[in-house]
Design a protein that fits this description.
5 helices; Glutamine Phosphoribosylpyrophosphate, subunit 1, domain 1; homodimer; seven-stranded antiparallel sheet; six-stranded antiparallel sheet
């Protein structure tokens, strides 16, 4: 299995604190040693840092912890391989362009007997994971339903994607993070939680390493920041645990749609 | 205008030496201060490091110079903006997936009156540069001609792309680097050169900063490494200067096709 981390915020915010906790699960407090990746959106642009080695040993992960990149949407993943070998092409998050937006996706879980369902041609996987193939299939279904021009109502698109995710959940475990750079969606199969931090801000203490942050000193009163993770990253705050089949859509830190 | 750098090698090779020269042109010996990017292929996978700030000041560029990533294909670009504002989404290289491969592209030059020609729908630009739009148009034309399944003969695809590049050259300056992760193509409009290094290896001295390398100590006798750049990066070696309209296709450091 793997660990997911994502963020949606209404001001460019760095994710160094949460990422520092996540990285520990890549070889220190967790067994996820088969690569890691993190995508930062900055405006419509995005950049992804990846390594096919464990995050706790990665030079690139050290850069991310020491160089705070401010972003409104972040998607991150650390991997413990099940389907597909350990390689860069199998390392999440995966990105594809649709409607002039970069869509970024990461998956926690494992699927079975999926080859027959996931027939793709417009979007094809580069690696050989069930995860990337499922992502390609989702985008292909979206294009088949909505066409090559972005519809006025992206909410209809996300409702459709939630239905697809529900279909995929029948094939195994499918905890998913998906973003178009503006919206951030999560879909829960069995392990997904989130927290929305806003004023009054307090202190937070990581579970996986001995780090405490006082968000009151790092934020302004108008900041709204939602963090999503497979398991809570802090032990002195209340995380919302999602139920199987539940999903949430966030924009600028705020809940926009759910099902 | 901008500066291009690319590499094709028959063994995973780091590009630290050449990149160190290129980075100087991003604010020290050259005026290209509007961002930079570099894509490394490792197997079928790829990762791109980018910044919308000048390379000579970038933390991420410092990482690339201190952490040798070994790769068989590299595409890099430093930007002096003409079309499109300074932002991450306008920073080269650009990547799209086709036929289960990541295609990576960078452009030096400027085009005019291109909007009518570059009609796209399957691949859409995220930013607002002429460069990214031209890339989307090339891939769209390739799909229209060859379909959604990779043809057995990729050489026919590259010959077709060379024809498209020749059409684009009529709209202005179009020096291009393109790779599918296995092959590396360059197309020259007015500024492009390359060098193929193989045994017996010698010393090379950068033009832009006081660095000398002895490739004999860094390589094995079977290594073949081709480096492409807008302008020569070393002053004690003989670079091949391409003529307007000329193009070359390399694989594993060796010339495969030209026109």
């Amino acid at each position: 299995m793997c660990e997911l981390l994502a963020m949606s915020a209404n001001v460019p915010t760095d994710i160094v604190f949460s990422f520092t906790g996540l990285v520990q699960r890549g070889g220190v407090t967790g067994p996820h040693v088969d690569g890691w990746g993190i995508t930062f959106y900055e405006g419509k642009g995005s950049r992804t840092f990846k390594d096919a080695i464990q995050s706790s040993q990665s030079h690139v992960a050290k850069l991310i912890q020491s160089y705070p990149i401010k972003s409104e949407v972040v998607v991150s993943h650390i991997r413990q391989a099940n389907r597909g070998c350990v390689s860069l092409e199998n390392t999440h998050p995966f990105t594809r362009e649709l409607w002039g937006r970069y869509w970024t996706y990461a998956h926690n879980g494992q699927l079975s007997d999926y080859q027959q369902k996931f027939v793709v041609s417009r979007y094809q996987p580069v690696g050989d994971t069930d995860s990337e193939l499922a992502f390609c299939w989702i985008l292909e279904q979206v294009v088949m339903k909505f066409g090559e021009t972005e519809p006025g109502d992206l909410m209809a698109v996300y409702r459709f994607i939630a239905k697809l995710a529900e279909e995929i959940r029948e094939l195994g475990i499918f905890n998913m993070i998906l973003s178009d750079g503006d919206h951030l969606m999560n879909f829960c199969s069995n392990n997904l939680c989130y927290i929305t931090r806003k004023a009054p801000f307090g202190k937070a203490k990581l579970i996986d390493t001995d780090v405490v942050i006082d968000f009151d000193k790092e934020t302004t009163p108008n900041d709204v920041v939602t963090v999503i993770a497979t398991r809570p990253l802090t032990d002195n705050e209340e995380w919302h645990i999602l139920k199987p089949g539940e999903w949430k859509l966030f924009r600028q830190g705020c809940l926009l749609l759910e099902g």
